[in-house]
Amino acid sequence: MIEVEQLVRRFGDFEAVRGVSFEVAEGEIFGFLGPNGAGKTTTINMLVTMLRPSAGEARVAGFSVREDPRSVRESIGIVFQDTTLDDALTGWENLRFHADVYDIPTKLFRERAKEVLQTVELEGRRDDLVRTYSGGMKRRLEIARGLLHYPKVLFLDEPTLGLDPQSRVALWDYIREIQQREKITVFLTTHYMAEAEYCGRIAIIDNGDIVALDTPARLKESVGGDVVTLTTNDNLQAGLELEELRLRPRIEDGLIRFEAPEGATTVANVFRQLTPKIVSVDLHKPSLEDVFIKLTGREIRDDEASEADKMRSQMRAGGIIGPGGRRMS
Amino acid sequence: MTGPGLRREVRAGWSLFRRDMLKFRRERARIVSSLLQPIMFLGIFGLGLKNVLGGTGPFQELDYIQYIFPGVIGINVLGISMSTGVTIVADREFGFLREVLVAPISRLTIALGKVASGVATAMFQVAILLLLSPLLGLTPGFVQIVLLMSAVALLAIATSALGVLMASRIRSVESFQYVFQFMLFPLFFLSGAFFVLDRVPPWIAFIANLNPLTYAIDLFRHILYGDIELGELSRSLLLVNSPAEDILIIAVISVVLLSASVVSFVRME
Ligand SMILES: Nc1ncnc2c1ncn2[C@@H]1O[C@H](COP(=O)(O)OP(=O)(O)OP(=O)(O)O)[C@@H](O)[C@H]1O
Ligand SMILES: [Mg+2]
């Protein structure tokens, strides 16, 4: 459904996307996972024909984004990272506008609009101005609108941005329900590790490059066992001793980190053998966060990301910068 | 473009137009304030300068307030239709423009839909302003009103296109308004709206001759002064060109601005 080959986007001298390649099969939920500024939105914007690639090629639903952007547009639905609703119109009016520009026959539109509104549980608010909706309701309306014209591929750029945990879970339920019912292909981006777990396959993207691409389960396996984190009163000495035990420790930010297939047994063993005093210990099954740390040596930092979200929504409310304005130029 | 393709574009253009009209209807404050401005002009200039200029030259036969009324109409058209450009920039700032741009419709349709909205709002405002004309001693008949509205539409195509052209180049509402104010002033005053341009320096005459408003106001005067007895001298001072010349020149300016705005809008990233 989506084929991407050596896709590059430069902004001046800066390479935001550095030759990414991947394929997404029909009916798949495919996720792009990466920290702020990784190049997720830039990639999506090229796939939905809003941004011209600097090099490389991408085909969506069989059409080239360079040569046949119009056919691509007819085949896709998109929920942009920043809201694109008209909040001076009602929910229903927003949907009707969409039906007009996508040329959905009026009768079909009425049925379909009811159906998608029901899915995202907004029938009751359809005649209220979007201005009066909560953030989560706006997001749901945007998803409903993205589905209105029966797209083959649905693009979601950070669909759960700025939502509380319950709303996020609910939104994911909709996404999966829709994906199964309509058999559409879903391409989404996120910087929440937990969400990436819902995807069939994920590509981890960092600094414009795909650093790993697989199912969440296999990515986690690739970490190589349970993740152990220790602090001791002499990390350097502890590191040397762990090295002797062939545990391949890494010291980062005052923490010693290593992976072991049988975590619990290994930790017990380490407690017995280590000469420096162990101050704290953490043992857990590998998460996607651990995959990211292992691949890049950094953390994605959900908390930092949500700070950025907050700032962004404040700026939007205050009208200091235009959402989307920067990305469109 | 094939038949069904064209039908799709028309539907999309219509929905853009309908959305603008819906929003216009809901923004009472905007309608009222854009009517207050011309009324202020009529009051301050018309009544205020009446005694200063009254009784001299052509104003022996024509009230000064009658003199500026066509100009006030022209300025109102300019202000309203160019502010359609603001709605594009605002849509960009609030994100809605991306919903429009990512849809499978042509940019040409989007630009033309916006120009249509500008023309319609301008015509609506002028229709309301015309209700004032009896108070000023002008009593346009049905034919005059139809002619005037057509002339307004012709001018509004040019000015709305100018608004779209600016919007395709300007990223923020604030800078749009800044540029808009900057352009409005010379367009207002160098158009023959407030004073006769017979004894101005050549550079002012040059600018006035490029200004579509100059011709539009001249045309409005031809239409509105139909019933007023004017002497030869007044006639030559108040009515500079023939109606046919005016129409031709505004039409040319409209076509140029419309093409430029469409090209610029299509190229916009
Ligand atoms: N229009 C632009 N001009 C210049 N640089 C840009 C532009 N758009 C994006 N960038 C840069 O490209 C990089 C990737 O941005 P992008 O928006 O794709 O990141 P992202 O992965 O979507 O991040 P986030 O999680 O914050 O949404 C960033 O460094 C950003 O500053
Ligand atoms: Mg992004």
Report the CATH C-level class of the largest domain in chain A: Alpha Beta
The overall strand count of chain B is 0
Task: List cofactors, ions and other ligands.
Answer: adenosine-5'-triphosphate, magnesium ion
- Low-pLDDT sequence parts of chain B: none
Which range best describes the helical content of chain B: under 10%, 10-25%, 25-40%, 40-55%, 55-70% or over 70%?
A: over 70%
Q: Which spans of chain A of ≥5 residues are poorly predicted at pLDDT below 50?
A: 303-329
Structural class category of chain B? mainly alpha
In percent, how much strand structure appears in the residues of chain A?
25-35%
- The best one-word shape of chain A is elongated
Work out the helix count of chain B.
12
Strand order within the widest beta sheet of chain A: 6-7-8-3-9-10
Shape of chain B: elongated
SSE ordering of chain A: EEEHEEHEHHHEHEHEEHEHEEHEHHH
- State the helicity of chain A in percent bands: 40-55%
Report how far the terminal alpha carbons of chain B are from each other.
23 Å
Verbal overview:
The complex is a heterodimer of chains A (329) and B (269). Chain A has 329 residues and is of the alpha/beta class. Chain A folds into two domains: 2-215, Rossmann fold, CATH 3.40.50.300; 224-285, UreE, C-terminal domain (Alpha-Beta Plaits, 2-Layer Sandwich), CATH 3.30.70. Chain A has helices at residues 40-47, 69-75, 91-101, 106-119, 135-147, 165-182, 193-196, 216-221, 235-244, 263-273, 288-296, 302-318, 325-328; strands spanning 2-11, 14-24, 29-33, 55-60, 63-64, 76-79, 153-157, 185-190, 201-206, 209-214, 226-232, 250-252, 255-260, 278-284. In chain A, strands 6-7-8-3-9-10 form a six-stranded mixed sheet, sandwiched between helices. In chain A, strand 4 (55-60) and strand 5 form a beta hairpin. In chain A, helix 4 crosses helix 5 (135-147). The radius of gyration of chain A is 23 Å and the shape is elongated. The two termini of chain A are 28 Å apart. The longest helix of chain B has 31 residues, at 64-94. Chain B has one domain (3-266). Chain B is built from twelve helices and no strands. With 269 residues, chain B is mainly α. The radius of gyration of chain B is 19 Å and the shape is elongated. The A-B interface holds A 48-52, 70-71, 73-74, 78, 80, 82-89, 93, 96-98, 100-103, 319, 322-325, 328-329 and B 8, 11-12, 14-16, 19, 22-23, 26, 91-105, 171-172, 269. The complex binds adenosine-5'-triphosphate and magnesium ion. Magnesium ion is lined by residues 40-41, 81, 157-158 of chain A.
